[in-house]
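Tokens for RagB/SusD family nutrient uptake outer membrane protein. Go.
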Amino acid sequence: MKNINFLFVLIFGLSLGLTSCEDFLEETVKDQVSVDYIYNSPAGLEVGVNALYNQMRYYNLPSGDNNDLWANVFFMVATDLGLHRTWNTPYGTGHNPQSYTGSKWIQGYKIIDRCSAIITSARSIKMDEAAKKRLVAQARVIRGELYLDLKQMYGGILIDTIPTTPQNINDPVEYKVASDADVYKLIDGDLDYAIANLPFKVDPGRYGQGVARHIRGKSALWQQDWAEAAAQFDAIINDGTHGLVALADVWGQNGNHKESLFTYQKDFLLGPSDDLAGGGGSWLSSVFTHRTYELNTSELVQDVAYGGQALGWFYPNNYLKSLYDQANDLRFKTYYYSDNYQDYKINVPGNPKFGQPITNPAIAAPNGNYRAWHWSLKKYHDSEKLPMTSNSYKDYMYYRVAETYLLASEAYHNLGNDTKALAYLNKVRRRGYTGNPESNVTTFDLTAWTLNNYLDESARELAFENNRWFLLKRLGLLVERQNLYFRSSPSGTISGEVQLKMTPAMINMPIPQSQIDLMGKPAGFNVGYN
């Protein structure tokens, strides 16, 4: 089957790679890297792989306010742990093929096409074989990761490993839903190759064996291959390159620590746009943070300690709050801005009560004002964010070892080994209660592995990272749990909270109708949306 020709080919600049369409090849290349250089030389192959990282950063961490940001935020908040205030509404009237953003589908297949081009062209490039394998392995991790992403999001997907070229771009295509067996065979083949050819220790912002095994373990969990999943997660844990860090450091300013399996790199001096090496400014640090400075302008001005410029679009909900032992679980104060108004000090110069606690916000707004005051997420806090902007250039940790431990716990439970399952679960839990990743304090240990204990501990540790939606879907609990606990407050007040119902069809995201039309409306896609 020829490549999916409705996905227009990427036009890469120096940092992004380049296109392979005929019109571009007829132009004189002045400020871009030539196609021949990328796909026919050792140095070009490396440039092409570097371009994939830039594209993946945009895929998972786009700058500014746009549909690409929404495509990522949705999976972080539209679960049983989230509360919507404004901006795009999860599961609302726009959750359909005609209206919902097609960012993940379109961008995902673009990058897959370029991965396949690099993988294919590398076969004929003469260079050091080990160096070549390491470059190809990085492209194959990304391709395997994207196919797993698409499978998790959309259910029925296409697969193709033939890159688009000027010679085949107009070839006829048969569009059909790939079988689960074929999809996972491709995913696992790519990841197994990467595991065999990548080291654990790599530079920040590079895929290493750790992240390849982590994704491979996730693929195994989707296939209910518990032994394979446990083996992959154990390999990460036992190697020692990666491990838990002190609780205070997990979401600190440095995202390139031992717990990180992979962190997207940002650098304002090398940016500040997505098509440059440093990337553009991300809004994640503002999306989930309340605007305390709107409570009382005589008492508060923007302060980076309180999140700085904020948007307050989404928040953790009361159900998530109820899962924490607020007196003892240190994550409650570490992963979230305090919900105690006395922790916020008057910071307006000249105010006679400067440095004293702010006025009780409940007095100023008896019914609540979620935009200005709500329990909010601190994980993406940027202590170096410039004032009066939502743009953050803090590196973004995307995969981390705490999730590895939790997923390994699930795998071992399904293998009938609850002793090891609890050991892994409590490893993360002890760090949460003591702050120490090597703690042996058993005071707060869970003594039984149950699905609820597992889901609750996963929520406490990983809330508002890119995993809860997919975990619940894999376990068959997404619709039930979302409908029980997810809330929306269009008025931004306590009394305005309402349920947003998720239908069973929504366990698969809507493929853009424009893409379905270009494929000739084949059967098997967007089931339940028609």
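The chain has 20 helices and six strands.
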